[in-house]
Design brief:
8-stranded mixed beta sheet, alpha+beta, single chain, two-stranded antiparallel ribbon, about 270 residues
Length: about 270
């Protein structure tokens, strides 16, 4: 059974409009979460704002937002002042432009959502917009108020539906030149390249969602199950200390690659 939608509105392209529903494409509901308890009483611990100078609790009515402009110097903003600059929520995804699918790099992607027609009435219009984007290799760009902020969103056709990605703001993405500019440009040794390509070929396989399973989550669930049954959790095996010596020259890299290829080949034969 599909989860309930958390947003309902309209998808619009010029004069073509259809009702749609949206729900997050990812979920953390299965993630193991913990509460903080008082070990002496077994009661839950609650958090509370405390004045940094007086150490006294602050009443909710006395809490106010502040923008720091200097040390111990803040511009105070009331709730009604913050509301005055907030954008009114919109229920229409109005596609105002299209761009080539490959022109938006993955680093701009934020959160994915599944967009579906809301009822049979809008299915035809929804399908036409989806198929037209797929046929032209384009994605739609729009703006939408989500999570209390206006965001640029990208609409990408996928199977029978559309994936709506919220996009990161311009000041959230750091330019790669700040980090990569100091790396020296050099042409790798051709023999090393050949060995690396061989190693890549040996390890190339089909994508499987199991590749991103969380082993710590599984071990946590096992630990919780053992504690429920009153069993003592198994002791953690001691890991071997890492070698201090790090290969630093071409000969060592070459030897390491050759050993890696031989090891992978033997593993495949087995």
């Amino acid at each position: 059974m599909a989860p309930r939608s958390f947003w309902k509105g309209y998808l619009k392209l010029s004069l073509v409009t259809c009702p749609v529903s949206m729900m997050p494409a990812t979920s953390e509901s299965q993630k193991v979460r913990f509460h903080t308890l008082n070990a002496k009483t077994g009661n839950r611990v609650v958090s509370q704002y405390v004045d940094a100078e007086t150490d006294k609790p602050v009443d909710t009515d006395d809490e106010v937002k502040g923008y720091q402009q200097g040390e111990d110097d803040y511009v105070l903003l009331e709730d009604d002042e913050l509301d005055s600059v907030a954008l009114e929520s919109t229920r229409t995804i109005d596609i105002d432009s299209f761009v080539p699918r490959d022109s938006i790099e993955w680093i701009w992607y934020d959160k994915p959502h599944y967009l579906t027609p809301n009822g049979e009435v809008g299915e035809e219009a929804f399908s036409v917009i989806r198929e037209a984007m797929a046929a032209t290799g384009t994605v739609g760009i729009s703006r939408l108020v989500l999570y209390r902020r206006e965001r640029a969103v990208m609409l990408e056709p996928r199977d029978k539906g559309i994936v709506l990605w919220t996009l990161r703001y311009g000041d959230e993405v750091r330019p790669e030149t700040e980090y990569f500019s100091d790396i020296e440009e050099s042409k790798p040794d051709s023999k090393l390249m050949t060995l690396i390509k061989t190693l890549i070929d040996e390890r190339t396989t089909a994508w499987d969602p199991a590749m991103v399973n969380d082993p710590v989550q599984d071990r946590l669930l096992d630990l919780i199950a053992s504690k429920k049954k009153g069993r003592k959790p198994a002791a953690k095996a001691k890991s071997k200390p890492e070698a201090d010596e790090t290969p630093s020259n071409v000969i060592n890299i070459m030897d390491a690659l050759r050993k890696s290829i031989r090891s992978d080949s033997k593993a495949k034969k087995r």
